[in-house]
Design goal:
The structure is a homodimer. With about 350 residues, chain A is of the alpha/beta class. Chain A is about 20% helix and about 25% strand. In chain A, strand 9, helix 3 and strand 10 form a beta-alpha-beta unit. The interface between A and B is large, with 38 and 37 residues. Strand 13 of chain A pairs antiparallel with strand 13 of chain B, so a sheet runs across the interface. Chains A, B: Its EC number is 1.3.1.74. Chains A, B: One of its GO terms (molecular function) is 2-alkenal reductase [NAD(P)H] activity. Chains A, B: Belongs to the NADP-dependent oxidoreductase L4BD family.
Amino acid sequence: MASEDGEVVKNVQVIFRDYVSGFPKETDMEVRESTMKLRLPEGSNGLLVKNLYLSCDPYMRTRMAKLDIPGYVDSFKPGSPITGYGVARVLESGHPNFKKGDLLWGFTGWEEYSLITAPEACFKIEHTDVPLSYYTGLLGMAGMAAYAGFFKVCSPKKGETVFISAASGAVGQLVGQFAKLFGCYVVGSAGSKEKVDLLKNKFGFDDAFNYKEEPDLDAALKRCFPEGIDIYFENVGGKMLDAVLLNMKLRGRIALCGLISQYNLEQPEGAYNLMNLILKQVRMEGFLVFDYYHLYPKFLEMVLPQIKEGKIVYVEDTTEGLENAPAALIGLFSGRNVGKQVVVVSHE
Amino acid sequence: MASEDGEVVKNVQVIFRDYVSGFPKETDMEVRESTMKLRLPEGSNGLLVKNLYLSCDPYMRTRMAKLDIPGYVDSFKPGSPITGYGVARVLESGHPNFKKGDLLWGFTGWEEYSLITAPEACFKIEHTDVPLSYYTGLLGMAGMAAYAGFFKVCSPKKGETVFISAASGAVGQLVGQFAKLFGCYVVGSAGSKEKVDLLKNKFGFDDAFNYKEEPDLDAALKRCFPEGIDIYFENVGGKMLDAVLLNMKLRGRIALCGLISQYNLEQPEGAYNLMNLILKQVRMEGFLVFDYYHLYPKFLEMVLPQIKEGKIVYVEDTTEGLENAPAALIGLFSGRNVGKQVVVVSHE
């Protein structure tokens, strides 16, 4: 595909227009056709890749605001393509870790072809006997967030009670399955009957409820956890966190993975029940998956056999085509997606 | 003093009237004169003690409400004396750990004489070359809270920046001094010029501010910590916690020791900035000192020489007489006390 001179190809891109406040809209992004010369710049140690699958993740909302937090990912750049996790095929490599034809997952652009300038942060895909799209979720960032968040941040013990919010999402469905396999009692919340059915019947949660149909979240949690919650895997924040704080057990742990209910509010909701952290000696810890990528080989070693034996399943919500990517991303914030939201750029 | 038959003596008591909501008042307690037979009940393995010093602690406010939290201390019993930490002299012992004449610190009643029914939770006082009243604070629960909270919960490293709220209080003044001796940069907040002077000039804090005179707590913290806060030792909650969350550094730690600003509110204030826990991977942990009492001998080994060498100082606010104890306790919530609030029952 790449020639000595560099073939010039059309390159459909999803451009980030400008910083967003409040609920993001599709029109905060623009799908634009540009062109790209399929050749690495002279002396580049980057990668020229063809993008295959892109990942829509709630944390991307935080990148739509102007942030400057050391150690956190950068904000999107107005006028440039959205960036995020994806699966791509290497067309040309200037980096010793990769060669032409390799598959990788890592940070790439929302466009057909990308120049990846930080290949050292990408992972070569070695196992292709699973759906490639899994590397946007189960076998990528979401899987690592579930693995590290549950096993490392929550320090689980067999028999403990685990509650997961946004439990049918990219991360939640995995945390629940990991916790069940580990020997915990697992309950999840989600925002529709369909998702609750998934939790109970597909992912094997012990119980689940639709938070939109519970007038009293505290009562719902007391019904599901008469003895209280040892571990809360937090994906949503807001009123759910406050209700959970009332129901934590002594020496419980809360892993803060995301607060999706808060990302689009001009002013976040308050958490009023923090005193329970003291009364029950609870640890609440925010974490970012980037800190745990050194565990990726260990994670794969655990999870690949589980996938092949059918012990871990994964539900994806697949959107075809870059032109539909903005709607797919925005849909996360209304809970439109059922399972992990993936955008297919190309089936090759 | 105790005779074979048991001398009957007058016993002034501070009685807890009924559960409190909102700001507690002196009249929620009643000072009453009763009598007591100075003799252990037949077969008791308890202790008959003469109380010398009583401790006024903010956590006692939580015990004025009807709570039922496993692992936390019980609520006060309406119609019975207030209970809390104190220093006492053993008059008669039914327990092998103690003998007549011993000094102890531990849970006792707000009265002249008490029958301690759980002597195994009391500590024998072995070192009397320091002020005895120190065992209500520096060498008692407050000291252990500062020691365990700082060294165990906060996992400090040399050179880190430490912020302490209610920093001139029973616990805060010690956390600051421990942190300075350990090699941290230490800033405290307090509620008067006098207290701020203490922090800077007596306790050796690097900086301090009067939160009542700061129109913008976020700005005050940014002024004191241009690079951010590694460790926050939380005694107050509310707006201060929210401002601190904005100023935490990557992988910071927050030890929740108390939330005194919230105890008297019908509805606690919200914490709006929890997203910072994720963005900066911060751990926030509530702790109770009871979990750490096994470290008491190690703590004494560290702190007794520091006291004798003048490296650790301790400021107490002493109130004479049980009849003034209710006012002393209530005063904690308006910040009337300067340093550790102690009530002297008897100088013997």
